[in-house]
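User: quick one, fold this
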Amino acid sequence: MKRIFGILCLGLILLSGCVSKKKTTYGRKDGRKVAEASAKNEKSGDLVPEDPGKFVYFSIASAEEYIETFAEIAQFEMKTYGIPASITLAQGLLESGFGKGELTRKTNNHFGIKCHTGWEGDYARHDDDERGECFRKYNHPMHSFRDHSLFLTTRSRYASLFDLPQNNYKAWARGLKKAGYATDRHYPQKLIQLIERYQLYRYDAQVLGRDYAGLPEASGEDYLTYRVKKGDTLYAISRKYYLSVEELMKLNGLQNSALNVGQVLKVPTEKVRK
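Assistant:
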């Protein structure tokens, strides 16, 4: 009996050795900077690393740790692609189950992006709206964040989002639902609640500059429109609404100070200015 037991134990040891050779690896970031943890691509200065050749999963303990882990990459993507960092982080928190959801654990898919036509990368089957749906799989979490940016910026259905001010997270949340990103009719409210609970709009303000620090919570209803008249200048309009010229230009996505008669500008209400 002792000999049989010893053989069984040896078999289990050998089996565990085989299991340890699987490509999936688990690591804990413990709040380290994304640039440090993701082996920053020195050639391009990109925060998204080259394919590590194996599955690298970041174990996340809490929502706060998720935010600390991925805030830098969300801000980097905002600077590069124009998607508010608050929206990226809120979607990541929601879609990934705070980084601990089953789909995220087995695919590094933080945004619930399905394969869709044309996807040639790795994938995994997962039950969602239907059984066994195809979801994209990434070897590194940062690849999911980059694909999220590309997914929104390369599909015409989301084009209207990029006409919205980058500090207007409420409009972005509603716009995502309207464009069909999610079937949940409460999707906008869930994103907004996450943004406000964890003050994710702070990361937008850091990217946009201190002129935006007082405007992060503004919604679409907090703005008025102003139609440019003959003789108007950006300076005169900014003085009228207690803004700096730079802030007015950022709010309307203007590249220079040229104005056209009849042009419609977005300006904040008194509520926002306070």
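User: anything notable?
Assistant: Strands lie at 24-28, 55-59, 123-126, 133-136, 223-227, 264-268.
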